[in-house]
Amino acid sequence: MSKAKIAVILFNLGGPDGPEAVRPFLVNLFSDANIIRAPGAVRWLLARFIAWRRASVAREIYAQIGGGSPILAETQKQAGALQQKLQSENYANLRCFTVMRYWHPRAEQVVRQVKRFAPERIVLLPLYPQYSTTTTRSSLQEWRREAEVQSLIAPTDAIESYPAQGDFIAAHAGLIQSQAGKYFGPGATAKARLLFSAHGLPQRIVDAGDPYPEQVAQTASAIAARLGIASDAWEICYQSRVGPLKWLGPSTEERLKAAGEAGSAVVLVPIAFVSEHSETLVELDMEYRHLAEQAGVPEYLRITALGVQPDFINALAQLVGDALNSAGGAG
Both 172 and 296 in a single domain? Predict the structure, then answer.
């Protein structure tokens, strides 16, 4: 068993922890150069304008789930489960830390904590299975800036994506079979449309070379193959569009309406979210459920996010172990 001090840093987007945090959270989000790709002064103004304009709507969304986002607590549960597994298997002095990109705890605070821990190795583990410049790159950039500012020096490995990692795919397949077994289990007796819903991106970001939709397709294809689902029984769609720009399509709303017109039941999988938050608990469970009912979808089943599902924690542990066992160590 390794006695080296190892820090594993889990990254997620974060969310406001109460109504008063909604507007500053939005300012942080839209101040990110990976999100609003405009010159600094213009981005500064746009971020504050968009946050002012969207704050009241966002507060209403979070009010439906208690006033704030559960994403930090959910990520901390994942960090705790991963730490326990890795400590019990190979790494006695390993510790997991969580960093939120747009709300507390931010990289500045967590870098200080990690520096006090004084690790001999660091593994950066974004909880975004599919790489995007708007998520993975953004989180890693902020961490590296803060690590340099605070002189956090240790060999560092970054796990940038894992769209088709075996245990990750098994986790999704297992949840689909356990929660929608009559449609996609071994003894399936009914038919449904399987929708893999991912958070959307403006098309111009994809056109600039972002690999996100390609990696989303890798995940969806691998899950469908594992479940033995025919190619005409599933599809990818995108949710959470905001603003006037052209976004990736088809939209989840469009596909729900199409399923209703066809009289098809829907099983919806949040393929790019690994923990519950507003986009799953409000957008999918409330808004899209209502839309499905209005569209005539006979049954709408939303598969839960991965959370601490054992196969998913195994996937994260395998990724960390592979990084630690790899040669080199520069992130």
Answer: yes
Q: Which two tokens stand for residue 29?
A: 């989000």
Q: pLDDT tens for residues 224-275?
A: 999 999 999 999 999 998 877 899 999 999 999 999 999 999 999 999 999 9
DSSP 3-state of 99? strand
Q: Write phi, then psi, for 65 (nearest 5 degrees).
A: -125, 35
- State whether residue 178 is helix, strand or coil: helix
- Strand 265-270 and strand 192-199: pairing? parallel
- Tell me the one-letter amino acid at 146: E
Asked whether the beta carbons of 146 and 97 are under 8 A apart, the reply is: no
* Domain presence at residue 170: yes
Domain that holds residue 26: 19-63
105-109 long-range Cβ contacts below 8 angstroms, 24+ apart: 105/72, 106/142, 107/142, 107/143, 107/145, 107/146, 108/146, 108/150
